[in-house]
Specification:
binds adenosine-5'-triphosphate, 354 residues, binds magnesium ion, 5-stranded parallel beta sheet, alpha/beta
């Protein structure tokens, strides 16, 4: 459980402290009052990353040199400092992670606290580009699996280096076989781990009971191996980038017809409502997967989703509230039923708060 949170020079917050005193907290505030910034800070504590940007420095308040997020969770004091590469006049890492004051690597920091985010952008996972679906898989797996975290970092690095070699070959015609061999081995090794773990998650999704909406997920994997790299050797030089591997993965979702005798792709044939039910179901399975892997329910962060969902869908989410700590943000009090508000901690934001 997340008990308290302090922000310093984080996005719109110069300095702010929050305490979470009930299982559900509802944060009500107008646009730009800092709701998503707060959710971003909590998600950062769980994943070591922003859910909005790859550029960590954007999380530091304008004009400041560093930002700090501190929290009390699961009887640990967690702290992340985001810097612009300088701290107290010395070169510093861009992100520092501390547990009870002891510095940690991101891969080790992450499992101290876990949270699942559900934001309006998630509603497009099924219909939007494959990168969103890959990010979904990464978010789930990075939270529960240290080996996956290590492999994704190593894979990205090796992929960048390999792409630079391909670009170089395209421009100069020179192919440095020794260097290719080194980076090939790394992308194959780490890519294989990523593929295997993504496959396991998709298998979990397919094996679990789905009370909200029944579907089948298909993992459209882009396998990376010596043989496949050889097969794409010339095409890769022409393209200047690596053409196979988990960075090209995707998954699709199919739903059953009424008599369950046939299935159809949800992206192409599902109604908007059906696509949303798939997302709700996927999110619940995400929570369950993390619970199974870590032995505890992650905190659920709902950033402004009630304005996007109809009554039936909201009802499905409200049914989950007692199951784990939940932090909800909303622009309008009316989106949350009075019966829920009565039982929860309510924090009101105004624009002048910060
Ligand atoms: N690095 C930063 N430094 C200072 N302010 C920032 C920074 N990044 C974003 N902001 C500002 O923070 C403010 C609050 O943003 P936030 O996304 O938290 O609003 P919100 O309450 O979620 O609003 P909405 O209801 O529109 O989603 C915005 O005005 C935004 O411009
Ligand atoms: Mg917002």
């Amino acid at each position: 459980m997340l008990k308290s949170l302090s922000l310093q020079n984080f996005r719109s917050y110069k300095k702010a402290d929050f305490e979470f005193i009930s299982k559900t907290t509802v944060i009500i505030g107008p646009n730009t009052s800092g709701k998503s910034n707060l959710i971003e800070a909590i998600f950062l504590l769980a994943s070591g990353k922003s859910f909005r940007t790859d550029k960590d420095m954007q999380m530091i308040s304008f004009g400041e040199a560093f930002g700090r997020v501190k929290a009390e969770a699961e009887d640990n004091e967690l702290e992340i400092i985001v810097t612009n590469g300088q701290l107290n006049g010395k070169t510093s890492q861009f992100k520092k992670f501390l547990v009870n004051g002891v510095p940690k690597r991101r891969v080790d920091f992450v499992e101290n606290f876990s949270a699942v985010l559900f934001s309006p952008e998630d509603l497009d996972i099924i219909v939007d580009s494959p990168s969103l679906r890959r990010r979904f898989l990464d978010n789930v797996l990075e939270l529960v699996d240290r080996e996956y975290r290590i492999s994704t970092v190593a894979y990205s690095k090796a992929l960048r280096q390999r792409n630079a070699l391909l670009e170089n070959k395209r421009e100069t015609g020179i192919r440095n076989e020794k260097q290719f061999e080194y980076w090939d081995n790394l992308v194959i090794e780490n890519g294989g781990i990523i593929t295997k773990k993504r496959e396991e998650f998709i298998e979990f999704v397919n094996n679990e009971t789905k009370d909200i909406f029944d579907f089948v997920a298909y993992y459209d994997k882009s396998v990376i191996s010596k043989q496949r790299l050889l097969q794409y050797k010339d095409a890769e030089v022409a393209a200047g980038v690596t053409l196979v591997g988990p960075h090209r993965d995707d998954f699709s979702v199919s739903m059953f017809n009424n008599s369950r005798s046939d299935i159809h792709d949800v992206k192409s044939f599902g109604s908007r409502g059906q696509q949303r039910l798939v997302i709700l179901q996927l999110k619940m399975l995400e929570l369950l997967f993390i619970e199974k892997k870590l032995g505890k329910r992650p905190v659920l962060l709902l950033d402004d989703i009630f304005s996007e969902l109809d009554e039936g869908h909201i009802e499905l989410i409200l049914e989950m509230l007692g199951l784990q700590q939940t932090i909800i943000t909303t622009t309008h009090r009316e989106f949350i039923p009075e019966s829920v508000l009565k039982k929860t901690q309510v924090i009101k934001f105004t624009k002048e708060d910060k």
